[in-house]
Amino acid sequence: xxxxxxxxxxxxxxxxxxxxxxxxxxxxxxxxxxxxxxxxxxxxxxxxxxxxxxxxxxxxxxxxxxxxxxxxxxxxxxxxxxxxxxxxxxxxxxxxxxxxxxxxxxxxxxxxxxxxxxxxxxxxxxxxxxxxxxxxxxxxxxxxxxxxxxxxxxxxxxxxxxxxxxxxxxxxxxxxxxxxxxxxxxxxxxxxxxxxxxxxxxxxxxxxxxxxxxxxxxxxxxxxxxxxxxxxxxxxxxxxxxxxxx
Length: 246
What we know:
With 246 residues, this protein is an alpha/beta fold. Helices cover 33% and strands 22% of the residues. The strands form three sheets. It has a six-stranded parallel beta sheet, sandwiched between helices. The chain has a three-stranded antiparallel beta sheet with strand order 2-1-5, with no helix packed on it.
């Protein structure tokens, strides 16, 4: 661990003492005697998000042919889930009435095998699932807030209601514009505008990934950066398709 010493000594008469950090040892004036103060500096890079979570909302087989640009949001979901595995971010998955609408699409199956919660629901909000909601209790303390990112469908129904419920519980919410869609594409910009106004951060998967990491010095950075590079061509297609409606 590195150390610096801090002084409260001021040279100019009339100025209030302020701490000043120096890169070398020196003494702090205390009356007629001198003493030292030591301040520890961070030894390792830290992630920006300390309590992230990934929500995968109702990415089911029966919706494949009904949702606008379903194949594009599927690509984004795969990228986010691969990054979540690398960064060891907990994953929460729901299906909507799976008995009628089918299971989560097969492309995501290996990526959600270790999901912290995987549950079926009839309610629209994912927070109406008790075993999932128990991980996101209401809070007013910043140190207890979770940073939740949402991918899935539909933008104006399940995604919107889930995001609003998370906000109401005091958590920070990120909805990926390249990771959500609806049957009717005209619904998407209306939903995203409403979510922005409510306090949700509407962003892209790549922006969210780098904000989540926050520092190129973390051990997982190289693997995530490699993933972003590998999927860059797909991401351009996804962005040009989906963001045309925003």
